[in-house]
């Protein structure tokens, strides 16, 4: 009898919790229709490009820095892939300590060097330092290194929630900035002197650039290519990537914590028995931008996570020299639990194809959840 009462009491508390959640859910906003991003005056674009001009070398040195235990997948790999594809700069992937960099939510890579080794080889510092989102914003080695690089004249670029790391280093105090929509309030609460700029994917202020969400790494890198090598070069790289526009205009109001977003995340989280591990095949010479976008998106459904596999346990070199360490070997994932990186598609189109595949497997609401996390302007399907 006592057990029955305890069970009924627990069920009652669960029902009350669900009722409270339901009331909270009703107070969340509904999705905002996708609007055209604002058109930027040419003077603003010119000023943005001028602020990103190489500060030291004719052929700049770019450092993409991460921490070993968890650095955001797309933030780390997309800048590396695009800048190496463009061949307008020397790009080094760095880690805070020796060993591989475990990316989140998927993939593991071997960096080119540690920050200490980079300093030994390049005592005058980088021209640009790209700072992805990291699992912690207060890694002392990274923060000290960022401050030192800024003192040496490097332009610091915080991609997505990497802005929180840049802010923790004290480099955004009193400056204009943006970040991923989900972390905006947290960034401003921790750093009240920051002046948040809405409706811009890219903001630059006195040697520090910040961007909006994860997908903003693509337009940010094309903007950097243009600042380094001119409009024609950027257009050529954009055509290879499959991108038409890469300006700084952005519809910030479109991205927020909405009722469909919250309800879909809850439903997918509670359906733990439906969760699955998917495999993505690593192949020699594959495009690392496409790989990053596909693996990242599939790992944000709250229904699946992606592991990589190859034909051996050895690291696989991508087209632009990124060494990806497989999580397993071929044969561990059945055909029906394998996903593709759409190798024959232009990299920028891979995200669209992946979202379509996610919608086919888990439904349109889940694809919308992934797009919202990536801050990618995919039209919301009306419920």
Instruction: Give unreliable regions as ranges.
Output: 1-27
Number of domains: 2
Q: State the helix count.
A: 13
Q: What is the CATH class of the largest domain?
A: Alpha Beta
Task: From the 3D structure, determine the CATH topology of the largest domain.
Answer: Rossmann fold
Number of strands: 18
3D shape: globular
GO biological process, one term: regulation of DNA-templated transcription
InterPro entries: Class_I_gatase-like (IPR029062), DJ-1/PfpI (IPR002818), INH-QAR (IPR052158)
Protein name: DJ-1/PfpI family protein
Domain DJ-1/PfpI: 64-226
Write out key terms for the chains shown.
383 residues; alpha/beta; Rossmann fold; 13 helices; 41% helix; 17% strand; INH-QAR; Class_I_gatase-like; DJ-1/PfpI
List the helices and strands and how they pair.
Blueprint: H1 2-26, H2 42-51, E1 61-66, E2 71-72, H3 73-86, E3 90-95, E4 101-104, E5 108-110, E6 113-114, H4 115-121, E7 128-131, H5 140-151, E8 155-158, H6 162-168, E9 176-177, H7 184-190, E10 195-196, E11 202-205, E12 208-211, H8 217-229, H9 231-241, H10 259-270, E13 276-281, H11 288-298, E14 304-310, E15 316-317, E16 323-324, E17 328-329, E18 338-339, H12 347-362, H13 364-374
Parallel strand pairs: 1-3, 1-7, 2-4, 3-6, 7-8, 8-12, 9-10, 13-14, 13-18, 14-17
Antiparallel strand pairs: 4-5, 5-16, 11-12, 15-16
Protein name: DJ-1/PfpI family protein
InterPro entries: Class_I_gatase-like, DJ-1/PfpI, INH-QAR
Domain DJ-1/PfpI: 64-226
């Amino acid at each position: 009898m006592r057990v029955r009462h305890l069970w009924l009491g627990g069920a009652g508390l669960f029902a009350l919790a669900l009722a409270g959640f339901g009331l909270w859910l009703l107070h969340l906003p509904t999705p905002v229709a996708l609007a055209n991003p604002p058109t930027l005056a040419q003077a603003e674009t010119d000023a943005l490009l001028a602020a990103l001009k190489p500060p030291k070398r004719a052929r700049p040195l770019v450092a993409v820095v991460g921490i070993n235990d968890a650095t955001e997948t797309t933030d780390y790999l997309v800048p590396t892939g695009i800048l190496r594809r463009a061949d307008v700069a020397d790009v080094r992937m760095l880690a805070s300590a020796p060993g591989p960099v475990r990316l989140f939510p998927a993939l593991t890579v071997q960096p080119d060097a540690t920050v200490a080794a980079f300093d030994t080889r390049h005592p005058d510092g980088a021209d640009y330092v790209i700072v992805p989102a990291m699992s912690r914003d207060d890694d002392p080695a990274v923060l000290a290194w960022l401050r030192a690089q800024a003192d040496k004249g490097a332009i610091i670029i915080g991609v997505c929630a990497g802005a929180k790391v840049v802010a923790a280093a004290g480099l955004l105090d009193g400056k204009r900035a943006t970040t991923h929509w989900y972390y905006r309030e947290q960034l401003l609460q921790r750093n009240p002197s920051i002046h948040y700029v809405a409706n811009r994917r890219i903001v630059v202020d006195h040697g520090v650039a910040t961007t909006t969400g994860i997908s903003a790494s693509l337009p940010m890198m094309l903007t950097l290519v243009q600042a380094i090598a001119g409009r024609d070069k950027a257009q050529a790289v954009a055509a290879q990537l499959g991108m038409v526009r890469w300006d700084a205009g952005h519809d910030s109001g479109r991205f927020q914590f909405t009722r469909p977003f919250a309800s879909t995340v809850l439903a997918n989280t509670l359906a733990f028995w439906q969760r699955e591990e998917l495999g993505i095949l690593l192949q020699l010479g594959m495009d690392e931008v496409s790989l990053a976008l596909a693996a990242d998106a599939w790992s944000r459904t709250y229904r699946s996570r992606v592991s990589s596999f190859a034909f051996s346990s050895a690291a696989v070199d991508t087209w632009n020299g990124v060494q990806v360490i497989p999580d397993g070997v071929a044969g561990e994932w059945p055909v029906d639990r394998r996903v593709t990186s759409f190798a024959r598609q232009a990299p920028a189109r891979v995200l669209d194809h992946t979202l379509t595949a996610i919608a086919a497997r888990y439904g349109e609401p889940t694809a919308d959840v992934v797009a919202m996390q990536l801050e990618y302007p995919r039209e919301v399907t009306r419920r």
